[in-house]
């Protein structure tokens, strides 16, 4: 006799049977009828040439853009809804095929670019020579080994703190995000954060196009450098980072200078500084010599002018010297000039004492007196 169930019990048994028979499965197909409901739930169909299955997930699981026509690989659990509709509940998904990967990349790039996550204005400058470096990578990867080797060759004595994570696959974005938070939440975080991975195909590098990972890189408080893949590979993580490196080896070259080149540059700068210093000293000495020469010339002119003035003063004094007047035949008369009085007459070579016998006014004085009387 066939077992009898209520509708609810039957649905529960079917779902239990599906869970026991399949658990989680991966289904690949083309997206159709994609929509987001109430900004909470995501619905779409996966189809191929002969079938279609309904898919459901939370909007918070939408880590990469989806649109109709894309091919997806979803990891999901099959179930029958209380309304008797069969569907699969998506746990994870990833684009399948180069075209779908590229389309998902372009959609998310346009979205984040519109938000300003890739704007040059928000990029920070890396420290010139960091002492402590945080590294997020797989320590088993060749890219990490190249990074550490070149870093040691270029500059020694650095403290490197490594968070060992998966750098491809479904778990990679979550592990890298957790490592970013780990470094950013430290009381004394590293001076620079480096996220590196060696080359690979587009599917291998797809973890670095995860929306949540890109946002975590952009939101970090530590200046971040991302070096993923080969030089031709550009991921959204590269675009969100403060600095992009072409490869892990190039990341090491960007982080620190070559100590030999650095020492040579310092020597060149010192030589240039010494040359400039010598030139400044020579210029200052030349200026001082010019000032001293100008000062001596001015001093010589002042001395010449003083000597010329002294000579002129001597000439004036000589002209008024009484001895010179006497030498020209003049005499100095001393005493009261009255008849009968005695006067002294000083000449150049002798002095005469005489008695006044006669006093008469000169004709010039008589003429002047007559002029005054007529006036």
Describe the structure.
- The chain has helices at 7-21, 98-115, 142-154, 172-184, 211-219, 236-240, 248-255, 259-319, 322-327, 363-374; strands at residues 25-37, 41-47, 52-58, 71-80, 86-95, 132-137, 159-164, 192-197, 224-228, 243-245, 332-334, 342-346, 351-355.
- With 375 residues, the protein is α/β, with parallel strands linked by helices.
- β8, α5 (211-219) and β9 form a beta-alpha-beta unit.
Secondary-structure element string = HEEEEEHEHEHEHEHEHHHEEEH
Largest sheet: 5 strands, mixed, barrel
In the predicted model, the low-confidence regions spanning at least 5 consecutive residues are none
Helix content: 40-55%
| Separation of the first and last Cα atoms | 179 Å
User: How would you describe the shape?
Assistant: rod-shaped
Radius of gyration from the alpha-carbon trace, in angstroms = 55 Å
Structural class: alpha/beta
Helix segment tally: 10
Mean pLDDT: 86
- Note the quaternary state here: single chain
Q: Tell me the strand percentage band.
A: 15-25%
| Major sheet strand order | 1-2-3-5-4
- Strands, count: 13
